Amino acid sequence: MEYTINRSKLELIRGDITQQETDAIVYSANSDLAPGGGVAGAVHRAAGPGLWEECQRLNGCTTGEAKISAGHNLKAKYVIHTVGPIYGNTNNDAMFLASCYEQSLRLASQYKIESIAFPSISTGIFGYPVEEASEIALRTVIGFLTRHPEIKLVRFVLFSPGDYKIYESTLQEFSEHRPDT
Ligand code: ADP
Predict the structure, then answer these.
(1) What is the strand order of the sheet 66-70 is part of?
(2) What are the pLDDT digits (tens) for 125-138?
(3) Torsion-angle region of residue 61: left (phi > 0), alpha (psi -120 to 50) or beta?
(4) Overall domain count for the chain
(5) How far apart are CA 165 and CA 58, in angstroms?
(6) Which atom of ligand 1 is nearest to the CA of 121?
(7) Which of 57, 60, 96, 120 would bridge with 85, disulfide CB 3.0–4.6 Å?
(8) Which residues lie below 8 Å from residue 53, measured CB to CB, with a gap of 6+?
(9) Substitution site in 22, 39, 120, 158 for ligand 1 pocket (most atoms within 8 Å of beta carbon)
(10) What residue's CA is closest to ligand 1, atom 1?
(11) How far is the CA of 181 from the centre of ligand 1 (A)?
(12) Going by C-beta distance under 8 Å and a sequence separation of 6 or more, which residues neighbour residue 90?
């Protein structure tokens, strides 16, 4: 599914974030930026050991923050590492989750990245309900693209068909209620 914001495009696809040819890919990291399970493990495996070597010099990452590195063996030139909130840990889950998308996009803009792919942050091991997370993710990205036309493409890469459907129906609702431009 596609949604346009001025001349920029927001895209939803089913797939694997490690295979994306966008300028940058984002993934849900742990605070050490170490290879682990889930999407972090997949990204580190596909990027090769050079990624972890570089990550050890980045000084970790706190919840809601984002760091950038090279893409190493990935097709993407850059990897953006962001730490999502563990659902239910604080009263500010929504703020931290929005911050992951916002900080990642700010880095993209600083590094002149025109196309970027996101997974669904925090909705795996970190337990964020996908409906709620999809609203925050899509609203934050749409807001950013409205203010930052230099980013041409944001692609959400949903790993499971169920997650794809949920993101699609959230985006559908947003497009039915979008203000006339
Ligand atoms: P978190 O700790 O942020 O919850 P997870 O790695 O457990 O991170 O999962 C985040 C989301 O990423 C989940 O929806 C999971 O299905 C998805 N995911 C796992 N592997 C991939 C992949 N290779 N590409 C895209 N998404 C993935």
Answers:
(1) 2-5, 8-14, 153-158, 115-118, 24-28, 78-82, 66-70
(2) 999 999 999 999 99
(3) beta
(4) 1
(5) 35
(6) 3
(7) 96
(8) none
(9) 39
(10) 122
(11) 35
(12) 96
Query: Which CATH number belongs to the domain containing residue 121 in this structure?
Result: 3.40.220.10
**122 Cα nearest atom in ligand 1:** 3
pTM over 0.90: yes
Residue 104 near residue 140, CB atoms below 8 Å: no
Report the nearest-CA residue for atom 18 of ligand 1. 39
- 72-98 pLDDT, tens digit each: 999 999 999 999 999 998 899 999 999
Tell me, yes or no, whether 139 lies in a domain.
yes
In the reported structure, the alpha carbon of residue 46 is separated from the centroid of ligand 1 by a whole-number distance in angstroms of 14
Residue 20 has pLDDT above 80, yes or no: yes
Q: Which domain holds residue 121?
A: 2-176
Tokens representing residue 99 in the block: 């911050």
Tell me the Cα Rg of the chain: 15
